[in-house]
Amino acid sequence: MSGFPKRRVGRPTKEEQAARTAAAQDKAKKDNEETEFLDEVLAAPIKRRNTKLQPDEDTLRTIGELGKLFCTQEEVAAVLGVCKKTFTNFLGSCPEAREVWDDGLMHAKVSLRRKQLTLADKNAPAAIFLGKNYLGQKDEQTSNVNLNKPAQELTEAELYEIAMRKSSPAPVADTKKDSVH
Predict the structure, then answer these.
(1) Residues near 59 by beta carbon (within 8 Å), at least 6 away in sequence
(2) How many CA atoms lie within 13 A of 181 on its CB side?
(3) Distance (Å, rounded) from C-alpha 61 to C-alpha 100?
(4) Model confidence pTM above 0.70
(5) Which 8-state DSSP code applies to residue 153?
(6) CB–CB of 124/90 below 8 Å?
(7) Which of 19, 52, 82, 126 has the lowest CB atom count within 10 Å?
């Protein structure tokens, strides 16, 4: 085999346990810092509506953190104290803000996909629902054409009908809603 050490069976060594504990503490500290920042932002009283946003560090961080929570643009605008149109225009005029917003949404999707994998063992319908609604996953529909005659014995009309069945898209039961993000 390769140069990997043999896998241990049983309890982890003190070093392995210490490394796991340190990693868990680092993750908890990082999560706590992000939560504290959002708690501060959300605890601040809602000010009079601004008419313009500035791409400063706090504004961009707030946009990114709320994007990680799958907040809608309307919700982010409310937290920032502006109307939705102002926030949408800000995303259009400030490429840095758009990038932070998109990164936040991508982080949320990755996090959701990770949770979906762990949830799939316990609750498959919930995992399917999350995948279809947030990750753009869908059931793949295939059709099988069974023929009773060899292709040489089929008429041109029958061949045309089979070809049209294969090339036409399957009917869609419900259309996907536009994303709120």
Answers:
(1) 53, 80, 97
(2) 20
(3) 8
(4) no
(5) G
(6) no
(7) 52
